[in-house]
Amino acid sequence: MTIATERLILRAAKQNDLMDLFAIFSDRRAMRYWSTAPHDSPARTQEHLDRLIASTAEHLTYFVIEKDGRAIGTAGMHKADEVGFLLHPDFWRQGIVSEAMTAIIPYLFEVTDHTQLTADADPRNDASVGILQSLGFEETHRAEKTFCINGEWSDSVYFALQRPS
Known about the structure:
Blueprint: E1 3-4, E2 9-11, H1 18-25, H2 28-31, H3 42-54, E3 62-67, E4 70-79, E5 82-87, H4 96-111, E6 116-121, H5 126-134, E7 138-149, E8 152-162
Antiparallel strand pairs: 1-2, 2-3, 3-4, 4-5, 6-8, 7-8
Helix pairs in contact: 1-3
């Protein structure tokens, strides 16, 4: 399964994505509000890539974002009904995540029976919160101290998007 948008190819992860994904997952800026610390080696990213590749066995629900032949991020549903996205900082503020998620969300509702999609963001991450809101996600609640990465606690703001009727 591949989804093409105006500028992007949204596809399953492949082994040759390793170094492009390591460039993202090792970047402190990209990982600032993520739920894990930046990857310290390609071997750590390989573990993540192995899970991404294995997860495509049933339905592809979590995509690699490819632009101009390069993996620049990931987006989609990564567990239960929760969606997320991560983009290399070189591609921030270009509408790429919005473009990708605008294509992915209808697909997810088509291939799953979920009544809603959910998301969890650090409330300090204005860009991600803004993207979720622009996609129609509504805040449902907040929680304090939900992740502790390298001794720093982060809070969470939770969102939901109802299945269209």
